[in-house]
Amino acid sequence: MTNTSSNQSPDQRPEQGREKGPESPRGVYNPITIGGDQKQERNWPGEFESPVVRLFVALLFTVIFAIAWNRPEFGSLTVIVLAGCLLQRLESWQRRIAAAPLILAAIRLCLLLPAYAADWTPRLNPFNGTPNHTPGGDFGMPWLPAFLSVCLFYLPRKDSVTLKIVVVEALAVILSSLLPGEGFISILAIFHYTLFFAVTIGLILDLKPSLRALFSNPVYDGAPVAVRIHSTPPPRRPGV
Question: What is the SS3 assignment for 2?
Answer without folding.
Answer: coil
